[in-house]
Structure formats: structure tokens, C-alpha cells
Specification:
7 helices, seven-stranded mixed sheet, globular, alpha/beta
Length: 269
């Protein structure tokens, strides 16, 4: 890990949180105004760390099988995506699944069951899309998950007990029999980072299950590291730079066997 880079990311994350708090005050009484301000903050942030020819937009994503996602707040387009973004409002006339590297949904709070389920449904709408191509060179590394768009759910606040959030998510997945291929990949909630580990999407030692860690001020650094280990739509010639400078930053994650047992039961249901 590079300490100077991590310190910079810690400051960036503090600025982001301050900006989100400011947006809540400035847009108070007008939920859409708050939402717009939050999205602008995230778009500006990711434009720094995924600079041109990556592009940042929002909207519905379509795949070549005529499926369409719900509207997503922050979408990082691969450099190969056609230039369909209006330079005036940064909205895209069309967003192709085969040109999307990441889909990020932004929420203020995840401390209400209905809001949590609503967010999971938005993530599921992205996961129901299928890309024709992926960035893996060798067929042995490919599986059905590698053709899905990596998804991230970000929330400013959640329960003080992060395990309560995870259990609500698991209850929703179990009740609706939602298999891993349609589940979230990463959730940033308050001070915590939650990873839904699975080979072919994002995995640690090819393990399967939900891991979580209190990442605090290092949350942005952890997020960039996790994003560097998700499947993109095109092969890259070199190691992702965030893998080099943020290596081993997510090493104290915790998991519970009973959670993983629930996930396994969903898969065979």
C-alpha cells in the first residue's frame, strides 16, 4: 500500500461526506434537489479517479436482449462506449450494457426495510441485464457472473449495528429466492463496506459469501481497490493501478457461517 495515496483518499472521502451533508441542508424540503446534488458529487469524484476516456452518466441501461434496467444514479462507461452523452446535461441518449463497467446507486439512508428493498430491486434490475462480452482473456476464467455488470450501493447512513442491515438483505433474498447472479456486489453503508464475494464477479480466494469490515475513513480507498478487482467489458493490458497502490487494504473483513448457509440454500432453492 502507498501511505500518501491512502491519506489523499481519506481526505477525499471526508470531503465527500461533508459535501453530502451540505447537499442535505441546501436541498432540504426538496428530495429531488438533494438527490441531484448527491449525484453531482459522485460524478465529480469518479471523474477524478476514472478520467477520460471513461465517462460518467446516469439513466437506464439496455442490453442486446431488449432488457432495460431501472434508472441508476452513477454509471461509469467504458472507453469503448459510443459517445452518446449530451455535453450540456451529461445525460446519455442511450446506455449499452456492453459499454458499462460499473453501476452505482446512491442512497441517503439504509435504515428502513422498504428503502433497503427498493434499493436492492434497483440493483437487481441491473443484474438482470447480460453483456455479450467481458474483459477476461481466458475461457477458464469466465462464467455466467462475468457477463454481469458490477454493482455498488452507496448509503450515507445505516443501522449502528451493520449486521442488522445484512440480515434484512438476506431475509429479502431468501423470501424472494433471489440467487447470487442477481444480488449486489458491494455496499458502502456508513462506516462499513460489505462485499458479496463470488468467483467471476468479485472474490477473495474464490470464497462465496458476505464479508464486512468497518473501513471508516479508508472507505474510498477500499472501494477503489474492490472496483479494480471487478470484471470490465474489455481486456486490459496491464495491472490496474489501484491494485498496485492499494494492495492488501481490505484484509480484516469478517463473515458468518450462518449467513453463508442462507446464501447456499437460496442457490439450491
Amino acid at each position: 500500500m502507498n501511505d500518501e495515496f491512502i491519506k489523499l483518499l481519506e481526505l477525499e472521502y471526508e470531503e465527500l461526506k461533508l459535501g453530502l451533508s451540505k447537499a442535505s441542508i441546501e436541498g432540504k424540503g426538496t428530495p429531488q434537489e438533494i438527490s441531484d446534488r448527491r449525484e453531482e458529487l459522485f460524478h465529480s469524484l469518479f471523474e477524478k479517479y476514472f478520467p477520460f476516456p471513461y465517462r460518467i452518466t446516469k439513466g437506464n441501461i439496455i442490453d442486446s436482449y431488449n432488457k432495460r434496467s431501472a434508472s441508476i444514479d452513477c454509471i461509469i462507461l467504458d472507453p469503448s462506449h459510443p459517445y452518446t452523452i449530451d455535453s450540456k446535461n451529461k445525460k446519455a441518449s442511450v446506455i449499452f450494457a456492453d459499454g458499462v463497467d460499473y453501476a452505482i446507486e446512491i442512497k441517503g439512508n439504509l435504515n428502513d426495510k422498504e428503502e433497503i428493498e427498493r434499493a436492492l430491486k434497483q440493483i437487481r434490475s441491473v443484474k438482470e441485464l447480460t453483456r455479450v462480452r467481458n474483459g477476461l482473456i481466458w475461457n477458464k476464467d469466465k462464467n455466467e457472473y462475468t457477463y454481469k455488470i458490477p454493482t455498488i450501493l452507496f448509503a450515507e447512513n445505516t443501522y449502528s449495528d451493520i449486521e442488522k442491515l445484512i440480515e434484512i438483505i438476506l431475509d429479502y433474498y431468501k423470501e424472494n429466492k433471489i440467487k447470487r447472479i442477481h444480488q449486489f456486489d458491494v455496499i458502502i453503508a456508513g462506516e462499513y463496506t460489505i462485499v458479496n464475494s463470488c468467483k467471476g464477479q468479485i472474490s477473495f480466494n474464490d470464497s462465496r459469501g458476505i464479508l464486512f469490515e468497518k473501513t471508516g475513513k479508508r472507505t474510498l480507498a477500499v472501494l477503489l481497490f474492490l472496483m479494480a478487482n471487478m470484471p470490465l467489458v474489455q481486456p486490459t493490458m496491464n495491472e490496474n493501478i489501484y491494485n498496485i497502490y492499494l494492495d492488501k487494504i481490505f484484509t480484516n473483513a469478517l463473515y458468518r457461517d450462518d449467513w453463508n448457509k442462507i446464501l447456499e440454500e437460496i442457490e439450491i432453492s
